[in-house]
Design a protein that fits this description.
Blueprint: E1 7-11, H1 14-24, E2 28-33, E3 40-45, E4 48-54, E5 62-67, H2 70-73, E6 79-81, E7 87-92, E8 107-109, E9 118-119, E10 125-128, E11 139-145, E12 149-150, E13 156-159, E14 162-169, E15 171-176, E16 183-186, E17 190-192, E18 199-204, E19 208-215, E20 220-223, E21 239-240, E22 243-244, E23 246-248, E24 255-257, E25 263-267, H3 270-273, E26 278-285, E27 292-295, E28 299-306, E29 308-313, E30 319-322, E31 326-328, E32 335-338, E33 345-351, E34 357-360
Parallel strand pairs: 1-4, 5-7
Antiparallel strand pairs: 2-3, 3-4, 6-7, 8-31, 9-10, 10-11, 11-19, 12-18, 13-20, 14-17, 14-19, 15-16, 15-18, 17-23, 21-22, 24-25, 25-26, 26-33, 27-34, 28-31, 28-33, 29-30, 29-32
C-alpha cells in the first residue's frame, strides 16, 4: 500500500505561484490540472509535498526550509512571502551550538519546597534544580522513573557542549554508540555523554533517580532512525568534539583529601576525559573543621545526595540542607559547609575554566 502526505495551501491565482515555487524555492512541479484553466498544482522538494489549490479553505501557513547554505538559497533572503500568502522561512540546517554567557547567581533549590515534577521525554519525571538556568548557560535536572522496566526510548543524541548523567538511586541500562554492549549505571556511577553520541535508554529499576547536567540549558535532542545499537565495533578511544565517553564506577574509586578542609572526595576522571571542560567529584565528610572558601569556576553546582549540612554564605542567611537539595555558588562568593553530618555525601560539578579554591581565614 502506497501512502503519500501533502500539505494543502490555498491560493487565489495559481499561475502566480508556479514560478515562485519552482524557481525561487527550487521545487519540482509534479501535477497540474485541469489543463485549460489550472486550479490545482502539486510541488515537491526539500522533503515536503505541497498541494496548492485555488480557493481552498484554511490559512496560508508557514514553510521552513533548512539548508547548509541559507545565504545562497534565495539570494540571501531569510523570510519570503509567496504569491498565495504562505510565509517562507530560510534557516540553517545545522546551526552552530551557542553557549550563552553565564549569568551568575546564588541559587538554593530545596526538595522540601515542593518544586513540581513534570513528565518529560520517554515518560521520565523531571524536576528543575536551577530555575534561572544561569541565563541559559546550563540545566540541572533531577530525573526519576518510579516504576521500573523497559523504557520506551529511541536511538537519539543531544546537541550539547557537555552532558553528565549521575545515578543517585537504582540502576539503568543504556546502549551507546561505539562503546560495546549494554552499560549498567548503578547508584554512585556516572556517564559523560559526549556531544552527539548516539544512545538509547533500555531498562530501569524501580525508583531510578539520576542527576543530569547539560550545557547549554536549551539544547536539541534528535532521533536517529538509521542507527541500530549496539554498533558492531567498540572504539573506547573515540572522541566527539574532543570529549570521550566515560563510564565511571563508584566501586573502583579511590578517596583522597578534598580541596575544602574537613572533607574527602573521589574523582570521576571527567576532567581528564573532557580536557578540563568539566570536573565531577563525590564529596564526603573527612577530618578537620570546615572553613570559609571561594572558587573561580564559571559554574559550580552541588547536589546533596545524603546527609545534612548548613550552607553559610557571606551576607546571606544560612540554609539547612538535606538529601535532594541543590545549590549553585557564583565565583568569588565566600561560603562554608558547616555542621556536616557524618553521612554527608555531595555531588559537585564544576564547568569551564581553571578551578582554584582560596581558603579564607575568618
Amino acid at each position: 500500500m502506497e501512502v503519500r502526505a501533502e500539505i494543502l495551501l490555498p491560493t487565489r491565482e495559481l499561475r502566480d505561484d508556479i514560478p515562485f515555487y519552482t524557481k525561487t524555492l527550487k521545487m519540482r512541479m509534479d501535477m497540474i490540472y485541469p489543463a485549460d484553466d489550472p486550479t490545482v498544482a502539486v510541488f515537491s522538494g526539500h522533503g515536503i509535498r505541497l498541494r496548492i489549490e485555488k480557493d481552498a479553505s484554511g490559512d496560508a501557513g508557514t514553510v521552513r526550509i533548512l539548508t547548509d547554505d541559507p545565504d545562497g538559497f534565495a539570494e540571501g533572503a531569510r523570510r519570503l512571502v509567496a504569491p498565495n500568502g504562505t510565509t517562507i522561512e530560510i534557516a540553517e540546517l545545522n546551526p552552530p551550538l551557542v553557549l550563552p554567557q553565564v549569568q551568575h547567581s546564588f541559587v538554593v533549590r530545596r526538595l522540601a519546597d515542593q518544586a513540581p515534577w513534570v513528565i518529560g521525554r520517554a515518560g521520565m519525571h523531571y524536576r528543575d534544580l536551577v530555575p534561572d538556568r544561569l541565563g541559559g548557560a546550563m540545566i540541572a535536572s533531577h530525573i526519576r522513573i518510579p516504576d521500573g522496566g523497559p523504557v520506551p526510548d529511541m536511538v537519539h543524541y543531544h546537541k550539547v557542549g557537555f552532558q553528565l548523567i549521575f545515578c543517585v538511586n537504582g540502576w539503568v541500562d543504556v546502549l551507546y554508540e561505539d562503546q560495546g554492549g549494554m552499560r549498567r549505571l548503578n547508584a554512585g556511577d556516572c556517564f559523560i555523554q559526549p556531544p552527539e553520541i548516539r544512545h538509547r535508554v533500555c531498562e530501569a529499576s524501580d525508583d531510578l533517580q539520576v542527576i543530569e547536567i547539560g550545557v547549554p540549558a536549551d539544547h536539541v535532542t534528535e532521533i536517529d532512525h538509521d542507527m541500530s545499537l549496539p554498533t558492531p565495533h567498540a572504539r573506547p578511544e573515540r572522541e566527539w568534539d574532543g570529549q570521550r565517553f566515560v563510564h565511571n564506577l563508584a566501586e573502583d574509586a579511590a578517596w583522597k583529601p578534598f580541596r575544602l578542609p574537613g572533607f574527602t572526595c573521589r574523582d570521576t576522571t571527567i576532567a581528564l576525559n573532557t580536557k578540563d571542560v568539566a570536573g565531577v567529584q563525590v564529596v564526603r565528610r573527612g577530618s578537620g573543621m570546615p572553613k570559609w572558601s571561594a572558587h573561580d569556576a564559571d559554574i559550580h553546582f552541588t547536589f546533596v545526595m545524603q546527609g545534612t549540612m548548613l550552607l553559610e554564605g557571606e551576607g546571606r542567611a544560612p540554609f539547612s540542607l538535606e538529601a535532594g537539595d541543590a545549590f549553585v555558588i557564583p565565583p568569588g562568593m565566600k561560603t562554608r559547609y558547616a555542621n556536616p553530618s557524618d553521612d554527608i555525601e555531595l555531588l559537585e560539578v564544576t564547568l569551564s575554566g581553571a578551578f582554584e579554591t582560596k581558603v579564607i581565614n575568618k
